[in-house]
Records
---
Amino acid sequence: MAARKATKKPNVSSEDLTQYYRDMLLIRRFEEKAGQLYGMGLIGGFCHLYIGQEAVVVGLEAAAEEGDKRVTSYRDHGHMLACGMDPNGVMAELTGREGGYSKGKGGSMHMFSKEKHFYGGHGIVGAQVPIGAGLAFADKYRENGRVTFTYFGDGAANQGQVYETFNMAALWSLPVIFVIENNQYAMGTAQKRSTSTPDLYIRGEAFGIPGEVVDGMDVLAVRDAGLKAVKHCRDGKGPYILEIKTYRYRGHSMSDPAKYRTREEVQKMREERDPIEHVREMLLQGKHASEEDIKAIDKEIKQVVNASADFARESPEPDLSELWTDIYAEA
Amino acid sequence: MARMSMIEALRSAMDEKLSDDASVLVFGEDVGFFGGVFRCTAGLQEKFGEERVFDTPINESAIVGLAVGMAAQGMRPCVEVQFADYVYPAYDQITQEAARLRHRSNEQFTCPIVVRMPTGGGIFGGQTHSQSPEALFTHVAGLKVVIPSTPYDAKGLLIASIEDPDPVIFLEPKRIYNGPFYGDHSGKSVPWSQHESSEVPEGHYTVPLGKAVVRQPGNDITILAYGTMVYVAEAAAKQAGVDAEIIDLRTLLPLDLETIRHSVEKTGRCVVVHEATRTSGFGAELIAEVQEACFWHLKAPIRRVAGWDAPYPHAQEWDYFPGPERIAAALKLAMEE
Ligand SMILES: Cc1ncc(C[n+]2csc(CCOP(=O)(O)OP(=O)(O)O)c2C)c(N)n1
Ligand SMILES: [Mg+2]
């Protein structure tokens, strides 16, 4: 990824830029807290942090309108926070408590919100992709002008069902945006070890799906690409692919020996390309916000995150009967 | 003799076969450069090169399909599906292609592949990282289904599976990769190095497919178990204070009915244990077989202890897992009847 170009005057209001900062910071602090709770044994099992990728989901949410849908993989905490789900409910699902979005049945990888049109974290790599097309199909059928953001990773981009879906989505002109979050690694495997060509945005070409590559460390670039893709879909032109180049700072999950990349590589990204630092600089340089304003936001976010951790600890364990509820409709 | 964890024993088996048979290949997701998420293939790529031990993209269906094609050409691929929960995209290739190639080609082509996969719960994996899908494979004619419970067996069975002329589903109980698990999740875990069955010979040996083993001799009741549940059953028998004979099936298909019959004819009572959900689980098959073979020797109904008929939970793993208490209760019930 090239170093950031000298920014031309960004086309964004102070309110919006401040909001992006707040949303991205919420994800980062939330994930850091989740990492801490994991270390303390309050969260168990699989837990995939989104740290480093915040600009992707915040940028795209800035392009979404009420009623648009989203579906993603197991690396889903950021998506849930960005679409407005309650941090308390997300954190309590991580700790497996009654107050969690799935009452502890799903855990980190499997949460949903009908209210926020969030159709899940999905633990099976690639499984959410055809589901995303189905969501878009329903919207098209209902002629309601909504679009679906279907997120998946560079590793998932090799699953067969992705291409089965591309074909159908193009065939039926479905209003679905395929968002490939290319963080360069699928677990311990670098993209070049598993993928025949480095570019993923061209993978729709054979199906007639346009695509473009986006700098995922720049929230405004992501937002602008998102707006373009959304317009394409709402205009009835069918699916669109965004390959968003990003980077995850932490391990794949909490148990990651990190032997597949160098510490220097991670450090360099953090220092030179951090998406939140980038917004902070824009806020200050463009005089959209003062140091004081930013400090106030930092403090406010800290409180929200701490409150979610308290909630997630205090929320009771689910009742034993929950083991057998919600398997079939009540008779 | 060397002491090995189950992971090391599996690696040693693959190492052995890669060394002595040029037609053996090892591949799967994160298997090559990274050495596998559970480290089962660590170091093998360095030793045998990228042509023989390699990474695949994330596409289980094509991983197994590729292996079928290689096998039709006389190669012996040993592939890894990273978790048994990810095998479903490959289920079509396994059941309709691998299992039937010999039969439908009138034996012109065969399919000597091994599909390894970590199975079972007890690691807080929730519904997409804890499943025990063995019954989906025991239902398929043409497959063999193997599940070791000790490092010694893991190596011997894996070598036998790679050498077997037919497709083998090789289930690895991931809860006992690093040490036996007696069902007490809050207790300290014991590493394999402190267990006698971690003595694993260097070099080549096999444990034959289709042969069960009596893990603990006893007179009052027979427990049929496999994988992690062998140890949980041992703890349960102790807890219930019954003189149980514990049979570790090791191979589910083909089933060693002789060893089972021999035991049940002696004890007259039988409890079947598995982690997988109860309805249509492999326990149903076991009970049917035991009933047919040993009906006149039975003193009580055969009981089964299994996972509940529910998705594997995130938060309530130990309420779901058929632990020693539930097994002990079934043992007592079977003894009283
Ligand atoms: C069908 C299936 N195969 C394998 C896995 C194991 N697995 C989980 S995440 C992952 C890597 C996916 O990488 P990518 O799509 O790039 O997403 P990222 O983790 O980088 O966000 C793998 C192999 C799985 N969950 N499901
Ligand atoms: Mg990735």
---
Amino acid sequence: MFGNSKDLLGIRDLPVSEIQEILDRTAEMKKIVMSQNRKTTDLAGRTVNILFYENSTRTRLSFEMGAKMMSSVACNISASGSSVTKKENLIDTARTIDVMQTDILIMRHGLSGAPHLVAKNVNAAVINGGDGTHEHPTQALLDAYTIIEKKGDLKGLKVVIVGDIAHSRVARSNIWLLTKMGAKVSICAPKTLIPSGIEQMGVTVYNDVEVALKDADVVMGLRIQLERQKGGYFPDLVEYAKEFGINEKRLKLAKSDAIVLHPGPVNREVEITSFVYDCDQSVIDEQVTNGVAIRMAIMKKAIER
Amino acid sequence: MNSILIKNGHVIDPANNIDKKLDIYVEDGKIKEVGENLSKGDTVVDAKGKVVVPGLIDMHCHLREPGQEYKEDIESGSNSAAVGGFTSIACMPNTTPVIDNGSVVNFIKTRPARVNVYPIGAITKGQKGERLSLMAEMKKEGIVAVSEDGDTVANSGIMRNALQYASNFNLPVIAHCEDDTLGSDGIMNEGYLSTILGLKGINKAVEENIIARDILIAENDKQSIHIAHVTTKGGVELIRQAKARGVAVTCETCPQYFSLTEDAVDGFNTYAKMNPPLRTKEDVEAVKIGLKDGTIDAIATDHAPHHINDKNCEMAFANNGMVGFETAFGLGVTNLVNEGHLTLNELIEKMSYTPAAILRLDKGTLGVGKDADITIVDTECKWTVDIEKFVSKAKNSPLDGFKLTGKAAMTIVGGKVVMEDGALV
Ligand SMILES: [Zn+2]
């Protein structure tokens, strides 16, 4: 259970106590992931189905590895074609999976709200692996866990998120989580990529990356998709990188012990340079490792009903 | 001879400045006498404690026939209208095929219907925005206006020609205002809520750009224009200013736009997805002010029924619109009259006489000699909306469970009782 819900659909409705509990439990799971005996019986006899309508390496694999380490029967369902252009009956697909006695349904979909529609129509616990431009709650939880590993606490930290905020579900889930946990969150992007009304989420909005990064404790880059260039949001990736990319010089504007996160996959030399990706301040690899542990903690919580 | 005497009711007839207790005598489908203490007629209807008003007129609805009878048809839609107290409804042309020629108009006019159904023709053939539709031919078959509703005539030159050409045949032009290049492909009003839900927003300028354009085209050529479903504060203001300049512009809003805000969409509620989208509290207030000061002339339903499969799906795929007839009057009484924005007299005028005048129909009054289209309303009746009980084929409405005051008690069309106490007769 996640609060009053069988499902984990977003951070917006997740109480602080639940967030804290997931983060606390992740530490145990990480020990298992880092051990030489990566096996628990937490999901023994349980079924986990992974239904992804969008490509993913990290999220999908981390759920699958985690589910298998916890001894569940885990299956990947290939959802072919683009869900955004083709109208197929999502409810029917979800019900089919559900009646095969699915305990946990992990779902990624290109349309905001698709997991909510599924959740209403199945008995399985639905975990949102990212929906449209809405939320990506497990990413925000793993990001928070990674920050806490390095910084001890989220409270009072200055976190700067740079990139395509408008189309980013990672940004939204992170803003919900970080502000709930007491961090000071800033966002930075060209105005075309700042969505309407976002300051009401409690963030400070910057359009100049060098001003935004000043004294940051945590710097988070977001992937810039090539299609945004075609959509007319900015002229091209070169100009974007020049004006908004995080490079060595700009990283120096943040605190000297600032850490760099990125949900991946990274466009090197666009949103962050290779130097920044590979520098000592980067925790991008740790994020990936922690992704397995956080998803194990979440799946364990999902069967506690 | 078929005659009815409606006794003891409080009669409100805005066009004739009547607002008092009177009896109405109806014979052979016409109003024969309005006066005190009348005593004749085959049937006597006791309207004590109720209000007798001109039959409500909806100048903007979608009946889905021909082509989408699985959503609604003329019979079921007109039944729904009768339950809502409507005696005349004007249906939009975005059917399959589109109402763009005389044959389709004739088909609609000959379908069985419980209330008067007036087709509205498309502005362009197939609603493709290219060539003008057969307006003269359609007029002869009975259209009362032209509109591209559901779409905007994107090409300003074609819109200009449409206003001029339609005026040859005394056809009002109803403009659905939406600037496609500015992002009409959104799902809900643009703002904080669309941002946190990750749903593409429709900003207010999408609507206001075309309202402004169409006003300017009409003004330039001294033509008249009617703006459909106004939802934004800025849109109301554009129309207010145009009226002050003397432009022949009229407009309507819908009950949903003075009763609901975008908050209804939260939780990915497809029932609250419509076009134009539900807006903010500030817009709702501006719409109410516009109704009060006369900027907004009429209240239409934009009754837009959909099959459950077209609503029980992803937000992006859900169809736009909600069932409108059966809740319109209750929303008007509850949110306008009882909140002090309009008098009952003004509400009735905007739901009967004014839409009739805009459509150039000789209806919407209780004058002697007029068609006996009469609605008896109970302005005290408190009821709870139960979408499962809708008479429309469709059950989609974000108003399920809403507590309303005010309901039609009897609907009389052409001197014939077609609905009594919520039941079709
Ligand atoms: Zn419309």
